[in-house]
Amino acid sequence: MPKSPTVFSYDEIWMVAGIVMEQSVPLTADEILFVRGTDGVIGIVKSGSVRQLFIETVDEELVMTIDPDDLLVASGFDDAPVTAKAIACTLSLIRDASSPLIVLPKDHPASSRLKVVASVGKRTVIRCDIQKGTHPEQDVLCGAAGLSGLEIISAEGRVVLRGKMPFSLERMPFG
């Protein structure tokens, strides 16, 4: 029988008068955590093992070694059901099929057409003021305005979310 998703409501997230607060959420390598804002969704999975990840730019190929607790984070720019599916697919392509991350040059016409973008590492900050798919640095990721400023941090067996905006969480099986 499939495991039902665990849903956290906004009431469970600590926030006092707009002050940045944080929430620690358990997360294993066989789960995905969706963070839903008013205008976008983010998916988060653990790497699950030590592995190499390739980051491809126009000029070079970068090799990044990631640890089991490192996070793969994908951002979608609306909260439609198909976006969550695309995020899960993107994360599976990177983690399970060893697909490289592709970084576009600034002002590339495809940037505006991207529906999902991804980042990998121990810490990612969501920003709405950067161009989609153009940042080889793996500590920032373009996201919807309603999730901008959210900091996503890896911890052993969990993920820490730090931010001041309203969002809901849904943890479910992955892989």
In short:
The chain is mostly beta strands and 175 residues long. It is 9% helix and 41% strand.
Question: Could you please describe the fold and organization of this structure?
Answer:
This protein has 175 residues and is mostly beta strands. It has one domain (25-165). 9% of the residues lie in helices and 41% in strands. It has one helix and 14 strands, in the order βββββββαβββββββ. It has one helix spanning 81-95; strands spanning 6-8, 21-26, 31-36, 41-46, 51-56, 61-66, 71-76, 101-102, 116-121, 123-127, 140-142, 151-155, 158-163, 168-173. It has a six-stranded antiparallel sheet with strand order 1-14-3-4-7-9, covered by helices on one side. A five-stranded mixed sheet has the order 2-13-12-10-11, with no helix packed on it. The longest helix has 15 residues, at 81-95.
